[in-house]
Amino acid sequence: MFESPYRWVPGLSEAFRKVRRQVAGVRFAGSQVECPVCDRRFARWVGDPQLGGCPYCGSAARHRLLRLHLEEEWGHHPPRCDVLHFAPEWGTEHRLRSDPRVGRYVTADRAAPGVDVRCDITLLGFPNETFDVILCSHVLEHIPNDRQAIHELHRVLRPGGVAYIQVPYRQDSITDEDLTVTSPRERERRFGQFDHVRVYGTDLATRLQEPGFRVDELRPVRSMAAADVARWGLWDENIFRCQRLPSERDLSLSRAY
Q: What does pTM read for this prediction?
């Protein structure tokens, strides 16, 4: 498997984030943009003024979009849910750990420090039907055997549970993948980033359906006001809502009662 050159120093990283958050309050003071992940306002985003990162929690546009969608969907779903968050980003993790609608919250990753469980997404160490919700944002494009990963996500979801999946996506072509490409430079040219093994296309929904998911391709930005899209720093990204349907056994048991 291709090894990422990223290196982490957990203690230093956390200390750096604390200092950065303090500095952000001064350097980016203002109210022109608003982060729905940490509920703070700033004069602008870090980097790209329209789609950059949150100065406080570091959320990218895709994290802010998912947060807004979950808020809308969970607002009509008051029962507490058990959540698996693969490759968690700090802002969303911090928010979900204190969300009263979340029961058990588990973070997982193969290599990143500070997660609750170290595991390979193609071989999750959880029993069948453990979680109600899975968050998996920009992970599958790194995984050579993504079909196995998708089957594992389906396996650990309870019937009726939902996996929210985001990936780099091209709307004008099918998935481009080639595991024989190992050069970081060629991967960046072809797939958009040095540690990606593919860029997904219009056949992604079919791939997600293979283990039995019902897949809805959501475009939340298209129902939002333009002023809100600009204020939250969003772009028209897809969210694939993958629901595990009840099995025939589940349906039979429900009819019996």
A: 0.88
